[in-house]
Amino acid sequence: MTDPEDAADAMFRALADRTRRDILRRILAGEHSVSALAEHYPMSFAAVQKHVAVLERAGLLVKRRHGREQLASGDVEAIRSVASMLGELEQIWRGRISRIDELLTTEKTGTTDITNNPTPEEK
């Protein structure tokens, strides 16, 4: 996946599922075999494998073989890129909220305080 926007879409789709977020938390704490991960969920081994595959395709998980086992670990750099994207969005919204606060402060301290001026109907 070379397009950063496609990569972001895949990451956020993968993270939209509660089970996948839980799997990601576990493998970020340490490498786990897929069969050991499957023991934590009330679903089939095949279903857990599918969740692991989605995380792997999204670039959030790395698998390696050790004998007959598949070991999964989290890709910390991918998680950092997701955090960075969310941080950028947070900054955009913080800027907007800050501008709204400035406008409200200006309205309160300006010559026309609309909150305290009675309307013609109130006079």
From TrEMBL:
Domain named HTH arsR-type: residues: 1-94
Keyword check for Nucleotidyltransferase: no
Protein name as it appears in the record: DNA-binding transcriptional ArsR family regulator
Xref: Pfam families: HTH_20
GO molecular function, one term: DNA-binding transcription factor activity
InterPro entries: ArsR-like_HTH, HTH_ArsR_DNA-bd_dom, WH-like_DNA-bd_sf, WH_DNA-bd_sf
Keywords attached to this entry: DNA-binding
